Amino acid sequence: MKLVETKPKFPDTDKVTINLGLVDLAQMDLLVAEGFYTNRTDFVRTAIRNQLQQHGDAIRQTVTRKRFVMGMQRYTKAELEASVAAGEQLDIHVLGLATIDDDVTPELARAAIASLQVLGAFFAPAAVKSALADRIHS
Questions:
Q1: Segment 67-77 mean pLDDT
Q2: pLDDT at residue 48 tops 80
């Protein structure tokens, strides 16, 4: 019998709720009705992507200046243990998704992580999040 290792599935989207004025909403609905967009979500996603593209240089400069890792960054027990063994603490800066594996203890997380800033989503065991609460910056 072959064992298949499964990796946890993390969401690649998150829900955002916004309030729009009735005139703006009506104009958006008009564009959807006229076939410019398939639905309201398509309109909003397109508008957001256009703004992100317009500010792309500023985003790249800030990511570089603040030393953010873009995308998904996973922290394993072995990596955190190696950091502690080397007498180092990590300053984690992630733009996207940061995860800490389920087998990481709160004590190891505190010993290995000096600060944590995640713009996006952060997944870790509840006890680890609690242990790092004073080190998490938004």
A1: 94
A2: yes
CA atoms of 112 and 18, how far apart (whole Å):
38
The helix/strand/coil state of 15 is: coil
Burial 68-86 (b: 16+ CB within 10 A, else e): beeeebebebeebeebbee
User: Does residue 13 have a pLDDT over 90?
Assistant: no
Contacts of 61 (CB under 8 A, 6+ apart): none
Element spanning 31, H or E: helix 22-33
Between CA 116 and CA 59 the distance in angstroms is 19
113 contacts: CB under 8 Å, gap ≥ 6: 75, 80, 89, 90, 92, 132, 135
Lookup result for tokens 């009735």: 22
